[in-house]
């Protein structure tokens, strides 16, 4: 995994927020800045999204809807992780995103029994924003949300939900290795300077 690839494997709302990472010289890099890159992210997350999301080609309007919900999720999560009340406007926006494409249990006959599959209707971006906002609502109302942390690497802004209380980095392969190499370099530099 390179710094230009989205970090995945955290709860879906964190994976979405983490598509805005620190780029060169501390500038923010948007890893889903085009419809094509959003489609690639949807493919990465396909096992956690309803099937119709990864089969559709996002439009610029769809991308805008995802960017908007991402900003509201991030504002809410950052406030909560800092022990502050989330912005009421972000909470309203996440609620509205869900309201625009509510889940309806679509009834069908499968030949032996009635089935009820959850479905949303509307444009891809509206459905996707609703699904992401609903995932955020699940995370934000979970007691574990207080454990969400920001990576301790100096130049990293990514969030994660640690499975182990001693976890310090978003990824051991990404930031953990850089921190270990930097510590080794500092120790080695100090020992050669003292010789």
From TrEMBL:
InterPro entries: ABATE, ABATE_dom_sf, Znf_CGNR. Residues 148-188 form the Zinc finger CGNR domain. Gene3D superfamilies: Jann2411-like domain (1.10.3300.10). Residues 1-29 are annotated as: Disordered. The lineage of its organism: Bacteria, Bacillati, Actinomycetota, Actinomycetes, Kitasatosporales. This is ABATE domain-containing protein. Pfam families: ABATE, zf-CGNR.
